[in-house]
Amino acid sequence: AMPMMTGLQLIAAIRQDYPDLPVLLATGYVELPAGADQSLPRLSKPFSLEELAGAINAAMSVSRAENVTFLSQRLRQATRAQTSPGPGTSTDSA
Fold first, then answer.
1. Is residue 15 part of a domain?
2. Strand boundaries in 1-94, DSSP class E
3. Given phi > 0 = left and psi -120 to 50 = alpha, else beta, which region is 66?
4. Domain coverage including residue 13
5. CATH number of domain containing 69
6. Do residues 9 and 27 lie in contact, with contact meaning Cβ atoms separated by under 8 Å?
7. Is 33's pLDDT higher than 80?
């Protein structure tokens, strides 16, 4: 147990400042409390180093995939903005 806050409270505090930071909840509880994000990646205690490494790798892989998707979308938007004519611009040749 952590003094001053629970793991879920810590995750909530982290997500306020770093919403895209992957998190992993290591817990000895079988179920999360009502109202907790049930999709939160969890690792049940006790766990082995291999299980920890796998859980971290999985959390980081999801984060990387989301970042690649986000960056690809932004790149497409930026490319469209550069190639499309601006307001009041004619595409006809004189």
1. yes
2. 25-27, 42-44
3. alpha
4. 7-30+37-81
5. 3.40.50.2300
6. no
7. yes
